[in-house]
Amino acid sequence: MKKIWTGVLSTALVAALLAGCGSNESSSGSANQGTDGTAGNGGAKSVTLKMLIAQPRLKEQYDKFVADFTAKEKKDKNIDVTVQLEMPTAENAAQILKTRLASNDAPDIFALHAINEIPSYYKAGYLEDLSNQPFVGKLLESVKPSVTTTDGKIVAVPLETLSWGYLYNKKIFTDLGLKPPMTLIEMKAVIEKLKANKITPFELSYKESWIPQLVLPLAAGALINTVDKDFVARMNKDEGSFTEMKAMFNIFDLINANGTDKALEVGGDDGAAAFANGKAAMWLQGPWYAETILKSNPNLDFGVAPLPINDDPKATLINLSASTSLAVSPTSKNKEVALDFINYVLDDQASNAFFQSLKFNPIATIHTYKSYPWVDDATAYVKEGKSYQDPAIPQAVKDEVGKGLQSYFAGQMTQDDVLKALDKAWKSFNKVNK
């Protein structure tokens, strides 16, 4: 969720996608292009399309896809398209996007988290109604609800659907005769077996705050589906408290006590490389990092398993979510081309290769590529009824979780401090979104 929804970038546009140089601008036109809507070479219309997609680790794949799109747009419609693509990581993307939207500088196309962000962005009027676009008819029925508003409008094309918990090194587990634990007691036994064989149990990578916050949706989802079913509804009414989620510290503390060093200096990419090379047996992370992991070690055999948060095996569940999705701004001056790109994401010819290169799950009827082994792992739990839909926790609260857990890990906040900060963040969200 995947993936799953991070990086540092100024609000200045990134340039030169095809030219590289750390930039992301692509064009099918020539140096003589006019401004938006004017004629370029040979009478072609010139358009600059601004995008914001918070997945910089997948820059290479987006570069190719954008280049293919601009070539198709030139061929089919004689439009010279220049794409200016900002690729912050999820750490700062939400704030960058909110600033752009509030200052009437909205990208034509932008990524947002389907579960966490569509409700508030739609209410604020930031999302174009895409219900009548051709891609809608290709979406799997199981995927459509994630990008559908309460009044029945589809407002984004999904990219990532996720089945996740944590990642584990299958070879290490097999060599030691271990199976993914289904209770906290079993997890402790796995940890002791790993340590006895001089293997570090967990990779810790908390430099980016969105990574430690992953423990919250896993713990909340487990508790909501077993003992606290109305938690989100009560929090939305200022009637609940995160003290009900205190059990998340049981597994978080266990992970932290048995992990790699210098966690606050290690980000997602470094964590992926370390995990890929066997530095630890498990990683609190989702399969959205599959492409990055396999870049470091193409032969790594890793799996996805649900994270136990207590000793009730019924609470050890896979999180099902739709995360990164692409929306169109209603204020776009290049809406025709923006909609062309949105539909190109599920193009009958191009989409299979694109999604496969991103290591994303199939989300449409046109997707015929074979699913990945880690997807099959998670699906096996889902088929057994061991899963839940990602809880609808506001993004502002998740941001606060990440910062709070970083401070908690550093010894600067207590458990109660973190929980109080989360209660405050949700109440602040409620005030703004009444």
Automatic annotation (TrEMBL):
Q: Which InterPro entries match?
A: Bact_solute-bd_prot1, SBP
- UniProt-recorded name of the protein: Sugar ABC transporter substrate-binding protein
Any Pfam family hit: SBP_bac_1
Give the organism, scientific name. Answer: Paenibacillus baekrokdamisoli
The organism's superkingdom is given as Bacteria
